Amino acid sequence: MGAWRLRAAGGYTARANTALALGDPGMPVPDALDAVRAFAAAHGVPPRVTVPAGSPWDTAVGRAGWTIDVGHGAGAEVAVLVADLRTLDAAPKPESQPGAGPGPGARPGPGPGPWTVTTPERPDDDWWALGLHGARPTPVQAHVVAPRDVPTAYVLARDAGGAAVGQVRASVVEDHLHLAWLEVVPAARRRGLGTDLVAAAAAWGRGRGARFGVLQVALRNTGARALYASTGWTEHHRYRHLVPVR
């Protein structure tokens, strides 16, 4: 719809089920929002518009009576971070984490012995269980998270006993590596595993021609933002999910 893209994916994730407003929709904004409502109703998803924070479309949609989606559990205000993949492995590790080394090598894990990080290109049951807190993926979740037409690594860390302790999803689109689903179990946090997962994903992406990294993190997720800042990621812009006032 002009420079807006209307998206629906069975209701799973806000980003996959929203109107992305990046420019002129080709009609007055109130009419465009009516079209968003109709599209959402036709696909059985809530009406929602995603706008770059501070953009003219943020202002215009707000003036039409739409407001921040406070009910969005993951956080409706998001920072988009970018990085040069050539520098990520060189990021310093805290001195309190012995054995730190670049890339997906072994490090002390939550139990006896090190953890190992692998980069399989399809998700196994342990990867899904970690990301979905023990649940199996629905067909819609599998469609959104594990497409077969995009090169993707389902990075997984296991401790010495073979238990899954951390994960991240990495997809290459042209020369950009997109990261999502970073998860570390509580017992393995603050030991550098998140850094190792990102480094492993970066190495995998570079091997497939990626030069730059992109990820999205909720503004309220201060722990993740601190991790990314410490390993070379910088903020490119922010966006917000807006919904009609009911």
UniProtKB/TrEMBL annotation:
Residues 91-126 are annotated as: Disordered. Keywords: Acyltransferase, Transferase. Residues 117-246 form the N-acetyltransferase domain. It comes from the Bacteria. The keyword Acyltransferase applies. This is GNAT family N-acetyltransferase. InterPro entries: Bact_Acetyltransf, GNAT_dom, Rv0428c-like_C. The lineage of its organism: Bacteria, Bacillati, Actinomycetota, Actinomycetes, Pseudonocardiales. Pfam families: Rv0428c_C (PF24553). The keyword Transferase applies.
